[in-house]
Amino acid sequence: MKSTNLIIKLSPFVFIKRLAVLEFIFAFLPTVLALVFGVERYYAASIAARTVSFSIVLTAVTTTIQIFIIALVFIWWYVPSYVVSTERITLVRGGMFEARELARTYAITQIEVAQGALGRKFDYGTLALFTSDAAQPVHLRDVPNPAQYARLIEEMVLPELAPQAQSKSLPPQALIAAGETQHVEFKASLQWDYRQEKRNKDLYEPVMKNLAAFMNTVGGVVLIGVADDGQVLGLTPDYQTMGKQDSDGFENVFNMAFNTMIGAEYRQFVDVSFPVVAGQEICMAAVRPSPEPVFLTHKGEERFYIRTGNTSQWLTVSKAARFIRTRFNGGG
Question: Among 79, 118, 213, 225, which residue has the fewest nearby CB atoms (within 10 Å)?
Answer without folding.
Answer: 118
